[in-house]
Design goal:
The protein is α/β, with parallel strands linked by helices. It contains 6 helices and 4 strands. The protein is 43% helix and 13% strand. It binds 4-nitrophenyl phosphate. 4-nitrophenyl phosphate binds next to loops.
Length: 162
């Protein structure tokens, strides 16, 4: 991976890496680009389940994101503990199961300390303690994912600048 010593390296993680975490990746990259801080961040996403590896984000997720001018075009990949716990400073799960799965894969306190939950960065959607999985639900679930992620990425970005 390309990174420099001063770069903040953030990996977003969900189950399939086709709905929530690629959206978090796309929204965060868009915010960083808008702020002209591309040289200061390295952003990626991954899934704890490998069944969708190699796929584009879910068509519904891409369609809802496109309405807000986000292009989601990353290909799904599996979370690789050996590499990802080294390559990233923050590893951010979308729900409690993601966080539990990541913690079960960590092999040191340093690795465990990198694991956080996305909703911890919410400033408006503070009643949500997870980014709800939209996969088996209706269209409104995809809008809610984007609402929560826009809020949480803004909070995360602020924290990264502190
Ligand atoms: P994601 O959503 O974790 O936000 O990418 C899901 C995608 C696929 C499945 C579940 C959740 N699935 O069961 O295949």
């Amino acid at each position: 991976m390309k990174s420099s010593i001063n770069m903040k390296r953030i990996l977003f993680v969900c189950l399939g890496n086709i709905c929530r975490s690629p959206s978090a990746e796309g929204i965060m990259k868009s915010l960083i680009k808008r702020e002209g801080k591309e040289s200061e961040f390295y952003i990626d996403s991954a899934g704890t389940y490998r069944g969708h590896a190699g796929s584009l984000p879910d068509e519904r997720m891409r369609r809802h994101a496109a309405k807000r001018a986000y292009t989601l075009d990353s290909l799904a990949r599996t979370f690789y503990p050996a590499a990802d716990f080294v390559d990233f400073d923050l590893i951010i799960g979308m729900d409690d199961q993601n966080v539990a799965d990541l913690k079960s894969l960590a092999t040191s306190d340093e690795e465990r300390s990198k694991i956080l939950k996305m909703t911890d960065f919410c400033q408006k959607y503070t009643s949500y303690t997870t980014v709800p999985d939209p996969y088996y639900g209706g269209e409104e679930g995809f809008e809610l994912v984007l609402d929560i992620l826009e809020d949480a990425t803004a909070g995360l970005y602020q924290k990264c600048l502190e």
